[in-house]
Predict the 3D structure of the following.
Amino acid sequence: MSILLLARDPATVTAAALEEIALLVPEMVVRVTRDRAAIETMLDEVEIAAGHLPHDLLVRAPALRWFQQWGAGADWLLRYPEASERDFILTNASGVHAIPISEQIIGTMLMFARGLHQAVRAQSTRMWRQPPDDGLFELAGKTLLLIGVGAIGERTAALASALGMQVEGLR
């Protein structure tokens, strides 16, 4: 019995999603779990895995043909050199988080530029403090250096440019 393992919390996968997946791979049994012990019991039959599968278990799955990791980086392979000797396809989710992460980056920059982190703290204690004259600044006209200009960097550059920032990027 071949298994497609979704290594994630079962509560996050709807019945409709499971049905859709099962239709795509009718020859496989679909299992959803993050439980290490449960994953260990099915390792010999896992052919496809997606999600947050512990890497030390991944390298012990003899039938594994494809691993879809949620993150972009594959630097974990350096800690598990035996994984690079295995014959499986590794795909990632590079770029899928470009919008939320770039918005978080810009939001954090705005927070510091406008002193919002201090204002929220003061507000929670019901105090109003005038920010120091040199404590606030505008992002417009500032230079942003992005190191790594993949999907997240490109989106961040677009948002920063829209705010009037000069953007420099290194790949």
